[in-house]
Amino acid sequence: MKSVLTLSAVVLAAMLASAPAAFAADEVNVSNGLTLTGNPLGLHGVDPVSMFDGEVPRIGDATYTSEHDGVDYYFSTETAQQLFDADPGAFLPQFGGFCAFGVYVGKKLDGDVRFADIVDGKLYLFVNEAIFEKYLENREEVLAVAYDTWPGILSTPVDDL
After folding, report:
1. Full-prediction pTM beyond 0.70?
2. Torsion of CA 133, 153, 144, 148, to 10 degrees
3. How far apart are the first and last CA of the chain?
4. Could you tell me the residue range of the domain that residue 49 belongs to?
5. In whole angstroms, what is the distance from residue 132 CA to residue 88 CA?
């Protein structure tokens, strides 16, 4: 009987240890597949630092890879990687890289770097041009409601929304 309880405790501990990874899977919008390090790729391989320099976002290079919260990010230069490593929160998109308008309506939609806005130093992504234009009609409300909604859907799998 004691060995059955011990085995059960070991199995339960293993399940609980792996649970955070399962919950985190849909907390950040990542590309399908894994990088060479075994982590998912964030921001579809676009250099997050490049989103803040006012130019066209640049595709990152796997040579310059940094991991943050189990997600890999690619950078176009070593300097960009160093800036990110010093303060990842300053460059990561809000709502895990999901579309801010999607979060506003309670969904986790893909965020596209072609449709982005920076408000008060924070990066917001949108799924397409039509949704981005809709967001621009009432920026403050969309962001305020999205921030209120995000905690309630943060750990919810995409397919369950």
Report:
1. yes
2. 160
3. 43
4. 29-90
5. 25
Phi, psi of 146 (to 5 degrees): -60, -45
What is the C-alpha to C-alpha distance for residues 4 and 1, in angstroms, rounded to an integer?
Answer: 5
* Residue 161: both structure tokens together: 């929304």
Residue type, 116: A
Q: Tokens 């300097």 map to which residue?
A: 79
DSSP secondary structure, 43-58, as one string: GGGB-TGGGGSSSPPP
Contact present, 59 and 46 (Cβ < 8 Å)? yes
Count of domains in the chain?
2
Residue 142 tokens, joined: 């969309």
For each of the chain's 161 residues, which pLDDT tens digit applies? 444 433 333 333 333 333 333 334 578 989 888 899 999 999 999 999 999 998 899 999 999 999 999 999 999 999 999 999 999 999 999 999 999 999 999 999 999 999 999 999 999 999 999 999 999 999 999 999 999 999 999 999 999 99
Which residue among 46, 72, 90 closes a domain?
90
Residue with tokens 């806005």: 117
In angstroms, rounded to a whole number, what is the distance separating the alpha carbons of residues 124 and 112? 10
